[in-house]
Amino acid sequence: MRKDLWKRTLRLLDLPEDMDPHVPRITVVGRDKMLVENVSGVRRCTEQEVLLLTGCGVLSVAGEGLLVKELGESQALIVGRLMRWAYGE
Amino acid sequence: MGNKKKWLFYNGYVIIQIEGVYPERVASLLEASGVPLWDLRRLDSRTLICTMPARDFRKLHRLDRRRRCRVRILKKMGGPFRLRRLWRRRVLLLGMACTLLLTWWASQRIWFVDIQGCRRMDEAVLRQSLLEQGLSPGRDARALVLSDVGDYVAAQYDELAFLELHVDGVFLRVRAREAMAEGERLDLTVPCDLVSTRDGVVTKITAYGGRAQVRAGDRVKKGQLLIAGRVTARDGSMTYSTHAYGEVLAAVLYKAQVEAPRTAVEWAETGATAPYAALYGGSWKWLERGCPFEDAELATDEDAITLTPWPLSVCYGTWREKVKTERTLTPAERKEAALFEAERMALLQVPRGAKIIMIDRHTVEKGGKLYGVCTVTTEENIGYTKEIS
What we know:
The complex is a heterodimer.
Chain A lengths: L1 H11 L12 E5 L3 E5 L1 E7 L3 E6 L2 E16 L2 E14 L1
Chain B lengths: L1 H10 L1 E7 L3 H10 L4 E8 L2 E7 L3 H11 L2 E8 L1 H9 L2 H18 L4 E5 L6 H10 L13 H11 L3 E9 L2 E8 L13 E5 L3 E10 L1 E2 L6 E2 L4 E4 L1 E3 L6 E3 L3 E15 L3 E19 L2 E5 L7 E5 L4 E3 L4 E17 L2 H19 L5 E12 L2 E13 L1 E5 L2
Parallel strand pairs in B: 5-7
Antiparallel strand pairs in B: 1-3, 1-4, 2-3, 6-7, 8-12, 8-23, 9-11, 9-15, 10-12, 13-14, 15-22, 16-17, 16-20, 18-20, 19-20, 21-22
Helix pairs in contact in B: 2-3
């Protein structure tokens, strides 16, 4: 309900969608770094897989030697060899 | 976030191990409560290791109870923990504080005097003059008014136009600006005459430019033309102006007359003494026992006690009290005192560079008073270039 309200407000004010704090924003630099913003928590953290809780569901990041370098201020920086990422429920 | 981590180094951070069924949940809760985490990694299925700020550790303590996880600190790092370790080493801290204090104290002082710009002026003489005005190594630079010292010292020497002094760290930079010498003011392209600066008798004249107007043996007055710059051709056909220059040596007299004093002030010992002691660190006097008398003379022992291996030494001595007494002089003493003072006054008039040929001293009596008279005869260059107007 609250998510819908945010979306409606942004649409009404003609603001970009990524201002919604419930929508994750993912920035990938090469194959080594991934910055995920608007993260609400971490579900699993291993060298092969990192599961992050976001407003759109669980973001699964798979790779090798993964490490959550920084976690805080609703953002997570993952470093390591990234292979794939996908949303799940 | 990188800068934040550096900042946290100064505030302190801990590397923790979270052990339990679901350690990531603790991490998520921490993140949700505004606690930043770094380097999250799994050791095994039940253990998670991460880094967090030390001041937020109490929050974790509350959370892990709810989540049934055990939290253990693996390592404490950062400024506060290092300082805590250092705090136990009091002597080291004291040494550091003393070093800082000493460095600060030493940086406020002048340790080196750098003099530049001395061509005619003797650098050693200038250095000694500055020393007499208190600009010695080890003096507090802020306690001195450098412009006043510069003006005072520059006024003492004819060679100096002015002195520029400024403190640059522990260096006192002295830039001497020298006054132009007589005759230096005009260049050779300017027509000028050579005139006399003093009364005297010419002993030698050499004209390199212009025509000599006097000869050896002539008596000249101050301002008299010695070598003329305006020259007429021998046949009288033309007159032209040139830059007159040359060397004119003359015997010059400097005379002083001083009345003989009737009394003399002398210092006499009363017999009262007081011990003296001073503590030196190198050449710097740190402590000194003051003089209890109004006027006294200090007699120090020759052998100072040196406290090796430190550069400390203790100097002992005795204060001997002295009082001023006035004594009537004998005629011979009056004569000698008058002659001494007259000679001193005459010598003070002699310019630097003049060669003293003869000193004549005698006494004269006028109106019942005794005078000491001294005449100093010098040989000096009396030529001075004066532009032809």
